[in-house]
Amino acid sequence: MAFTSWADFWAMGGYALFVWLSFGSTYGLLLGLWWYSKRQHNNIQQQIRAKAAREQRVRQHQEREK
Amino acid sequence: MWGSMFRWLDPYAKPETLYHLCGRLLPYLMGLAVFTLVLGNIWGLAFSPADYQQGDSYRIIYIHVPSAIWSMGAYSSMAIAAFIGLVWQIRVAQWAVLAIAPIGAVYTAIALITGAAWGKPMWGTWWVWDARLTSELVLLFLYLGVIALAGAFSEAARGIKVASLLAIVGVVNLPIIHFSVEWWNTLHQGATITKFAKPSIDPSMLWPLLVSLLGFALLLAALTCLRLRSQILMFEQHRPWVRQLVESKNGEQN
Q1: d(CA B170, CA B154)
Q2: CB within 8 A of A26, min separation 6: which ones?
Q3: Is the C or the N end of chain A the one with fewer CB within 10 Å?
Q4: Of residues A31, A26, A11, A16, the one with CA closest to residue B114
């Protein structure tokens, strides 16, 4: 352990701003990318599902028209 | 010769096979990535000793070096995928270009931001237009260019081709980034671990760095799997297997 207390750890030997700015923005960006990619994946599935449902409705409608 | 050498890869060029392979790998890769990142970074942040010159500010190394190295690693993989996609017209390779580009852009942005936050206390400036920093910034623009070009054509296939071409041409920037610290006078220090000699860093600092390096690599692989799955679904959405897959999972988000 390189630090003697939590306060010591957070202070980072006077470089707190730079160290925590780095780690904060890194994990912010990585979590953002993960969340965005996850959402994109769900959206695509939803779109495909909606499209399939719409085609189904169109088909049913056409059959009723006959 | 080439045909038989790469025959074993053939099934993975089939989008459906690759989709399921990525789906199986994803939880393991993501789990290992989170584990190694947490381990490497906490080790580096709290347990490895402070630097005798830079004090605790040097701890930025545990994200700066891995993100910088893998910003170039991601670019190489993207360019190889682009080459395979252009030359052999393998569609999953073309989609891999689109899957990797945003991850590489984020890694590059991280390398630049953490570099600035490290440069301020050590060099006295957030930014200088020196060779290493400028060539890494060019890498970010290359990634953004690939992303923008891929989306700039009404016909998606053409967009991917033009973006792949840019990705391949941009490879010339990789040796420039790597050797910039040797070719030009620069504020940035020379290579510490990526050289053909004993690393110039103490083992108590090297080990957490290597674990963090592995963590960023695993995260790159995991995010590539996740994003490639989306690309496969998008481009294969009219195929029966996608329809079946999506409908069988009705309501379930996966």
Answers
A1: 24
A2: B63, B67, B110, B113, B114
A3: C
A4: A26
Task: Report d(CA B165, CA B155) in Å as an integer.
Answer: 16
Tokens linked to B189: 């220090």
B254: helix, strand or coil: coil
Kindly determine whether residue B109 and residue A2, on different chains, have CB atoms separated by under 8 Å: no
Pairwise CB contact (< 8 Å): A51 & B102: no
Non-local (6+) Cβ contacts of B2 within 8 A are none
**Which positions in chain A touch B67 (Cβ < 8 Å)?**
26
Q: Mutual orientation of helices B91-123 and B156-169 as an angle, nearest 10°?
A: 50
Q: A46 to chain B: nearest residue by CA?
A: B246
DSSP-H helix ranges across B88-171: 91-123, 131-150, 156-169
